[in-house]
């Protein structure tokens, strides 16, 4: 799958071999807790870390091994571990690389449960967690301490949408690593789905994906993945995976596999719809700012233009500050096609109001922030829906 075929073709044509005499195209669902060994010698020689044999359901079956291989290939990595949600994939990285006395850096605009986990590890587990300005770029070098082991990145932050300079952050970390420090860059690459941002090519060491979003595309499954290009690093993370017991259900793994062939087409459709709706909103007098990385006034837009090849369906708007929270809540309540709910990557358009002041250390906009996830509906219908709800604002 890593040959010269385009991503779209690779998403459809994988190396999967159907059982002899049964040439079905979908990957079979293999469920198991116990895996039986042929003799005691086979049992004694088992090594779950190598994934060259099946040992126990927690470490996978042919279904999850196939999904892991396909996710690693999509992302341009070599190793992949599945977790039962995107958030548990984040936790796997933290548990795998951090111990008491270590330090970790998280961008101030990161997925909020990632920040919350960081605060918890700091409060109860002796790990120092510091939050940094997502636009810090090469300046991250000044924040790295001798005990810093992990630098999280996310591009863009999925509410306020600043696009960080990932290559600059990775370069600073790599310099410390070549000086002997055990330090890695992890990236939450969920927004770009591994399609619009080639994280490993830009220097990232560990890619985390919430497969819950674009990969599955069905709004019906939770799953996460941690992908690396390094066997030793994968072993460290795999140890955390085993110790904490981050197994996934094989029916869920199948749902994600089923989403992969259409993932890029869906991503591109979300992207086109979102840019159309965002452009329409930008021209409206009620809206102070549109926060969409493809728009020139989004913080980090130049970085997005340099490093990314697409944008997906997610963006936010800041209303003019003359509108109160009660008014913009009414706007959200008046939308008919946009459902009120978290997550993205499914067919339905969604929207969520955020109290950004409570999530960020230095947020200066006074207007209300609403995040839109553009689904797969006709963009003109979505615009008409927003227009009728804006009409009720005054
Ligand atoms: C949804 C999401 C997660 C967490 O995924 P879950 O499967 O919902 O736990 C992590 N990071 C980002 C950016 C997300 O959007």
Automatic annotation (TrEMBL):
One of its GO terms (molecular function) is cysteine-S-conjugate beta-lyase activity. One of its GO terms (biological process) is L-cysteine catabolic process to pyruvate. It catalyses: L,L-cystathionine + H2O = L-homocysteine + pyruvate + NH4(+). The keyword Nucleus does not apply. Its cofactor is pyridoxal 5'-phosphate. The keyword Lyase applies. InterPro entries: Cys/Met-Metab_PyrdxlP-dep_enz, Cys_b_lyase_bac, PyrdxlP-dep_Trfase, PyrdxlP-dep_Trfase_major, PyrdxlP-dep_Trfase_small. The modification N6-(pyridoxal phosphate)lysine is found at residue 213. Keywords: Lyase, Pyridoxal phosphate. Pfam families: Cys_Met_Meta_PP. Belongs to the trans-sulfuration enzymes family. NCBIfam families: cysta_beta_ly_B (TIGR01324), PRK07050.1 (NF005456). This is Cystathionine beta-lyase. It comes from Noviherbaspirillum denitrificans. The lineage of its organism: Bacteria, Pseudomonadati, Pseudomonadota, Betaproteobacteria, Burkholderiales.
């Amino acid at each position: 799958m890593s040959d010269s075929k385009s991503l779209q073709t690779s998403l459809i044509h994988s190396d999967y071999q159907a059982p002899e005499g049964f040439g079905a195209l979908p990957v079979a669902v293999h469920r198991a807790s116990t895996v039986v060994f042929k003799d005691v010698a086979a049992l004694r020689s088992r090594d779950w870390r190598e994934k060259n044999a099946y040992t126990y359901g927690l470490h996978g079956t042919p279904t999850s091994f196939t999904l892991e291989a396909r996710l690693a290939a999509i992302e341009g990595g070599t190793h992949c571990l599945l977790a039962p949600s995107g958030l548990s994939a984040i936790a796997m990285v933290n548990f795998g690389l951090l111990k008491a006395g270590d330090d970790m850096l998280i961008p101030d605009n990161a997925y909020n449960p990632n920040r919350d986990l960081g605060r918890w590890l700091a409060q109860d587990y002796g790990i120092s967690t510091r939050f940094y300005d997502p636009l810090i770029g090469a300046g991250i070098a000044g924040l790295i301490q001798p005990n810093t082991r992990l630098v999280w990145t996310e591009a863009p932050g999925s509410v306020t949408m600043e696009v960080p300079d990932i290559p600059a952050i990775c370069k600073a970390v790599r310099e410390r690593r070549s000086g002997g420090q055990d330090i890695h860059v992890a990236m939450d690459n969920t927004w770009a789905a591994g399609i619009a941002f080639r994280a490993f090519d830009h220097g990232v060491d560990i890619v985390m994906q919430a497969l819950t979003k674009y990969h599955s595309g069905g709004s019906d499954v939770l799953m996460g993945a941690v992908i690396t290009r390094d066997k030793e690093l994968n072993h460290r993370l795999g140890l955390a995976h085993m110790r904490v017991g981050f197994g996934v259900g094989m029916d869920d793994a199948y749902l994600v596999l089923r989403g992969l062939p259409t993932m890029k087409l869906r991503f591109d459709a979300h992207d086109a719809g979102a840019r159309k709706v965002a452009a329409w909103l930008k021209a409206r007098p009620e809206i102070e700012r549109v926060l969409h990385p493809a728009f020139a006034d989004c913080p980090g837009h130049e970085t997005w233009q340099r490093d990314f090849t697409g944008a997906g369906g997610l963006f936010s708007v800041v209303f003019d500050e003359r509108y109160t929270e009660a008014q913009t809540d009414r706007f959200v309540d008046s939308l008919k096609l946009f459902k009120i709910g978290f997550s993205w990557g499914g067919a339905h358009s969604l929207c969520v109001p955020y109290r950004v002041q409570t999530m960020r250390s230095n947020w200066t906009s006074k207007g209300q922030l609403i995040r839109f996830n553009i689904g797969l509906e006709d963009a003109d219908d979505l615009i008409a829906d927003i227009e009728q709800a804006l009409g009720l604002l005054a």
